[in-house]
Amino acid sequence: MAATISDLDSYADYDSFLVEQFDPNTHANSIIHQSAKGELDIATSLSSLSFSIESLNKQLQDQVTAHYNDLLSQAAGIRELETILMTVKAGLKALSTSMERLSFKVKTPFEQIQTYTIQLERLQVTSEMLRRVLRFLYLSKRLEMQMPGGDLELTKAALTLSEVDSLLQESDLEGINVVDSEVRNLESVRGRIIDSADRMLQDGMSSQNQAQVGSALQVFYSLKGLDIKIMAITTNLNSKLHSQIKHAVDIQSLQKEAKEAGMNNSAGFIGGGVRRRDGEPSVGAAALWTSILWKRMEKLMDDMYNGCVKIYLLERVLARKRDPLTQVSFLEVVTNSMDGNIIHRFWQSLSLHLEQELRASARSSQFLLQAFVDGFPRLLNLMHEFFSRVSVHSASATSDDVQSPEVVLMLRAVSTFESAHLAKVAQRSGQSTPTVGGAPRRR
């Protein structure tokens, strides 16, 4: 019988029941659908299913009968496994309880420490902020007390203001009412300090007072504006000398001055003796014009001398003053910022302006050209005296046989008139043009 069932079981179709997505309703509907089409009989399908069920039950019974002892031992093992699993479960529950207790002991203190750490950091930041605010208020009060003082107090006030600026740059105090109100007052204080230092510097340079100049320069250095101030001074001085050079050789102002002098002269040159055709002086007025021109040149040399004295004074004081921390001289700071020595830059600008204006005036007026060519020895003598006076204030010393760079620059500015003068002298004497010589040396 067993063989018969086994043989019949080979014809049973179990594949459709072994599909992972098997759905009994879907399978039943499929059978009904096939029966409706006449492809399959429902009764036959039911019989096949019943037979398959009986076959499977029979096979299960055979398997249980054939492995009875093994199944009994497996059942006993399952009971023992249940006991072991109960023990493991109890252990896991105890471990979970221990983990909860340990988490409570570790997590809670950690969270407290984290909270306290945040509070401490914020307290430190607040304390540092308050310390800086107090320092700012103290400096503001000290600055207010230093402002009415003299030159020494002005220097101290500049140092205090510099410290206030550094404090504001290092700390973000914006938004604090007491600080914002004081910051607005600092701008007016800064303007007063700069104006006072400006006046002190101008007075010191005019009177050659090194102490005043040094105090004023210290103020500008403390306020981080020394290089800008020195650049402005040299620029203004060069511009002023340029205007003075231009005025000295201006043919229109010379004509006006000659006209006024001619009218006031009893021997008089009415109208200054100007020829209407080209605005040049008449023969009779040439002496008056020449006299006025050389007086102007003498005054120009005085103006140039005064400018040079101021520049040399400025250089001496800059070289003497030093940063108290780095010991770097103010002159080195200014030289690095201006990319060059202020003395050399001043002389370059002065010689360039002198050369440009003298050549321009000679091109525009035949009288001026002739006056500078014929009177070149007089011009050279004026420059010689100018160099002699300047050499007293110059920091560098040169021998009588060596011309300083400043002398070379200035002589180059009048080299055109020198060449024309030497050529004219050679032509008169019937000789070849002599070599340039007799140039003034700085003593």
Automatic annotation (TrEMBL):
Membrane disposition: Peripheral membrane protein
Record carries keyword Membrane: yes
Keywords: Golgi apparatus, Membrane
Residue intervals of the Conserved oligomeric Golgi complex subunit 5 N-terminal domain: 16-143
Pfam families named among the record's database cross-references: COG5_C (PF20649), COG5_N (PF10392)
Chain ranges of the Conserved oligomeric Golgi complex subunit 5 helical domain: 173-387
GO cellular component: Golgi membrane; Golgi transport complex
Cellular localisation: Golgi apparatus membrane
GO BP terms in the entry: intra-Golgi vesicle-mediated transport
PANTHER family to which the protein is assigned, alphabetical: CONSERVED OLIGOMERIC GOLGI COMPLEX COMPONENT 5, CONSERVED OLIGOMERIC GOLGI COMPLEX SUBUNIT 5
Name of the protein this chain belongs to: Conserved oligomeric Golgi complex subunit 5
Organism from which the protein derives: Podila minutissima
